[in-house]
Amino acid sequence: MTTLNPVAVGPTDETTDRPSRRRSDLAVLLHQIRYEQLSFWRNPQAMIFTFVFPIAFIAIIGAVFGGGEASDFFYGRTGMQYYTATIAAVSVLGACYGQLAIALAARRQTGVLKRLHATPLPAWIYFAGLLAHCLMVSVIDVVLVVSVGALYDAPVPADWASVGVTLLLGSVCYCALGAAVASLVSNSEAAPAVVQFVQFPLVFISGSYFPIHSDTLNTLAGLLPVKPFNDALLSAFTTGDGLHWKQHGILLAWGVLGTLIAVRRFRWDPRPE
Questions:
Q1: Membrane-crossing residues (predicted)?
Q2: What backbone phi and psi angles, to 5 degrees, belong to 71?
């Protein structure tokens, strides 16, 4: 009778190797997240301006609107309630969209991405590490804005679960759009201008810096990625009425679109002059 040697059976080897591969991928992903975090925290200018802008802005708003009463101008909210949510949203947009697009363009221009692509590091782990890093920075930004807002009598968010879901979807959406924009710009010098060209008008028509009372403009902005994120955070911060499927669906749709553009157009090497 012939005895089979289990070591020689291919499917068994593959099944045995899967858990070790998953552990290996997880270890590499955690290492990539740590690398992105160390790179960020060791860059004092990037770190300071990422956190100082929203803190300074909300402090100025607090000096102006702190202790005010709810009004129709802020849709039944106080000025601090309104701006605590919208400035938190702007900080997430800056961390996940603006900084990511500029950083990817700069890394491609300097050849960092080309060298990285030549290593065994899977592309999905690299981008997952970037996403996790941006999400962590966004969480810190939101906590800082909420903390400073509380000093000016802005209540803490009413629904932390909704805040968490909205923050995750917004971060994924903005990171995907940041990667898409980075794939379209020709060089790192053009990246800040292109990023601001897209971000600046969206922030204003979406009511981030002042409420918009035009139905036409609100309808248009509601189909774009910034206002749905603002609205979902505003509701989570003030009313706590659960998840907002419409806004979350729009964020998810823009995230899918950004991902498709990035996958199709992303380049690891600099564009030829």
A1: 46-68, 80-104, 124-148, 160-181, 193-212, 245-263
A2: -145, 160
Task: Average the pLDDT over 182-203 and give the result.
Answer: 90
Q: How confident is the model at residue 7 (pLDDT cuts 50, 70, 90)?
A: very low
- pLDDT beyond 90 at 138: yes
Cα 68 versus chain centre, distance = 31
The amino acid sitting at 184 is L
Residue 132 has pLDDT above 70, yes or no: yes
CB 176 within 8 A of CB 262: yes
Categorize the per-residue pLDDT at 221 as very low, low, confident or very high, splitting at 50, 70 and 90. Answer: very high
The reported pTM is: 0.87
Q: What is the DSSP string of the chain?
A: -PPP-GGG-HHHHHHHHHHHHHHHHHHHHHHHHHHHHHHHHT-HHHHHHHHHHHHHHHHHHHHHHTTPPPBGGGTTB-HHHHHHHHHHHHHHHIIIIIHHHHHHHHHHHTTHHHHHHTSS--HHHHHHHHHHHHHHHHHHHHHHHHHHHHHTTPPPPS-HHHHHHHHHHHHHHHHHHHHHHHHH-SSTTTHHHHHHHHHHHHHHHTTSSS----HHHHHHHTTSSHHHHHHHHHHHHHT-----HHHHHHHHHHHHHHHHHHHHH--SSPPP-
- Cα–Cα distance measured from residue 229 to residue 93, given in angstroms and rounded to the nearest whole number: 9
Q: Compute the distance between CA of residue 22 and CA of residue 28 in angstroms, rounded to an integer.
A: 10
Question: Which of 163, 42, 189 shows the shortest CA–CA distance to 105?
Answer: 189
Per-residue buried b or exposed e for 219-229, using 16+ beta carbons within 10 Å of the residue's own CB: eebbeebbbbb
